[in-house]
Amino acid sequence: MRNTPPKFRVIDVENKCIVESNLQKRYLTLSYVWGLVPTVRLRRENIDDLMSIGALGRIRHQLPQTIRDAIDLVRMVDERYIWIDSLCLIEDDPDDLLSGVKAMDIIYEACTLTIIAATGADANAGLPGLRFNSRKVEQFVEEIDSGFSVMVCQGLTRALDNSKYSTRGWT
Fold this sequence. Notes:
The chain is of the alpha/beta class. Helix content is 27%, strand content 18%. Strand 6 and strand 7 (148-152) form a beta hairpin.
C-alpha cells in the first residue's frame, strides 16, 4: 500500500491500550479539533506504558472528553479499534510522526468509519448526545402568521460552516 506507515498503531478499546496493527483490520478513526487542551500524547518515554493492558483505563481522566467519548462510542457500536493521531503517532519521534502524517490519507481511507467531532472549539467539547445531557438543542421558532409558528432547522452544512472544525486542513 502506498505511504503505509512502518508502524501502524491503534487503540484497543477492549484491552484499554495502544497496540500495533495493520490497515487490513477493522478500525475507526477520530477527526477532531485539538485546540489548546493539555492532553496525554504518545511519546518515546510513555510508549511502553501506554501499550500495556489497562494503561488507557488508568489515565482515562487525563484524556480530553472527545477522546473519551470516541473510545466509548467504539465500544457502543461493538467495534474494537480506533486510530487517534495524538495517541497513535509518536509525537516526539520525527520519523514516526512524518510517516504517519504522510499516510494520513491512507489511514482515513482504510478505516471502517470516521467519527467527526465537528462541534466545540477544542478536544474537551466531547461528542454531543453520547452522554446524558451533553447535547444542546436549539430550536428556532418563527411566527409566520398570527398564532401560527413553525420551527426552523439549521442545516448541517450551515452548522459545520460556523464551526472551528471547518478551519482544519483535512478530515
